[in-house]
Amino acid sequence: MSSYVVVGTWNTKGEELDFLCDEIGRLGHRAIKLDASSQVVSDSRDASISAAKDRAVEKLKDIMEKEEIAGAAAVGGGTLLFMAVGIMENLPLLMPKVIVSTMVANSLPAFRSHKDITYIQSPCDFGALNPLSKSVLENAARALTAMKEGLPEMERGAIAITAIGIMGVYTEEIKAFWREKNFALVPFHSAGESTMAMAELGRANFFSGILDLALHDVIDYVALGAYGNINRERLRSYLSMDVPAVIAPGAVDAVAFVPKDNSVPPRFRKRNLYRHDFRWAFKTTRREAVEAARWIGGIVEETKPEHMLFLIPLKGWSYPGDEGKSFYDPALMEAFQKQLRRFVRDDQLVAVDLSINDPRFGIMASQRLCDLMERKSRAPE
Description:
The chain is α/β, with parallel strands linked by helices. It has helices at about 10-25, 45-65, 80-90, 105, 130-145, 170-180, 195-205, 215-225, 235-240, 285-305, 330-340, 360-380; strands at about 5-10, 30-35, 70-75, 95-100, 120, 160-165, 185-190, 210-215, 245-250, 255, 275, 280-285, 310-315, 350. It folds into two domains: about 5-145, Rossmann fold (3-Layer(aba) Sandwich), CATH 3.40.50.12020; about 160-380, Rossmann fold.
């Protein structure tokens, strides 16, 4: 029998929450109620909701200190969705998390959590238990209790690799390279939430090495692009632990934008445009590239990793940035590299006469990472 936390506002959704708890019980498990009902603390409703969320987070931490839980579920509307995401961000990756809400589709992008939460869009609202809502909640209970909990065991080790569709770094050649060495290659989308999940796994010592070849989320963070939902832990997590890492500025030459009406915002109108699909990319300015290098360099300066190497491909950082194409800008590359050299030792930054899209670059990066891993394994404790 496993124990699952059920989160919700019993003052407004009590029938549904009790039903979900009973259903978890019928499946042979135990439900722990976590009431996140708000109390009026001011004339501002959002202050009351935020205070209730904070109290629920403390309740969850208290529960986790006292007993072992296998996962959590939450049920409600838009407000509950906001609260539940904030509450479940305190649970580790690969612990089952299920949120059932009527507003997943139109509200979720505002929260942008990197946690592996399963969202179920309910076709009906909650507030009066009925056969339709019962079916939704039964499915939620089955989904929650059927999920496997915990990180998988690794026979040899795992290698993280960052990638994004505007560049071609995650190739068959790289996969074959690491497969031959009996390492699991784990890709992460350089789009904010995925790389923040990589950061959490890095802090948990999940990786033997890091191929951080796509820093697109960093330039989006600096230039306010579409996929910059990161913070300093994005890099600090593994650099502070000196996990062997090879880093490259993949897609730093492109700022992502998702148009709503096919129009170009004023700040992008004088920039070269690459239409990827429903997402667009605008060419990075030199000022933005320098700011990205300064942000990265500041983290390197703080953490002082010994087993890290920057590779700077000189013939292109993305598909539209390959030599001869519209984003190709040697002056931007030089400005980025010059700024980075203020923080990175000369022996930790190497310019390479290749495009990041060239399969030879990926193999080179992989071999350099192997060298760093072997060097660290020989280092005295």
